Amino acid sequence: MAWSANSKTTARLLTLAVGMLGFALFVMPPLYDAFCEVTGLNGKTGGRYEAVPAAVDRQRLVKVQFVASNNESMPWEFKPGVVEMRVHPGEAIDTVFHARNPTGQDMVGQAIPSLAPSKAAAYFHKTECFCFNQQTLNGGESAELALRFIVDPDLPPSINTITLSYTLFDVTERVAHQTDNKNTDSEREG
Q1: Among 119, 127, 60, 59, which Cα is nearest to 92's?
Q2: What's the pTM?
Q3: CATH architecture of 43-178
Q4: For 104-149, what is each residue's pLDDT tens digit?
Q5: Could you tell me the CA-to-CA distances from 10 to 6, 7, 17, 24 in Å, in that order?
Q6: Which of 22, 51, 63, 89 is 20 to 30 A removed from 157 (C-alpha atoms)?
């Protein structure tokens, strides 16, 4: 009789743990994104920006710093092509980040940007960014990941330095899970 009660408790705790994991993986990221978008916290940058002709402010230079880091479960080598540059607001700038998958397995990575100071997020526009898409690298493969951005000429004069950092996450299992779900749905419909 006591073993049965222990089995029920174990089953409930296991169900709770699986539910918490599902919540953390599938519910929290969209909630976090919505929270950051509404509050402007964490310096989250916006999505793709459509460039419109603007005058380049040749009288002003803004230092832009680049930082790359990996989530603890991501084994890739990931670094900016340059650590910092000075740019004129309004000027379209191209740079790259370098990624290498040193493992023997094909993997999918997703870079999440963050900007400091957070007030600068509204004035930093990415027109092309590797962060817009997931990056697939085969085992041992390397890639240059393109970034094109514009610092808005309306950037407040008090902001002289902007730090753009990317954290790279391993999303291989999530992509495989989504692909499996799509295949299962297609089989049901077919």
Answers
A1: 127
A2: 0.68
A3: Sandwich (2.60)
A4: 999 999 999 999 999 999 999 999 999 999 999 999 999 999 999 9
A5: 6, 5, 10, 21
A6: 51
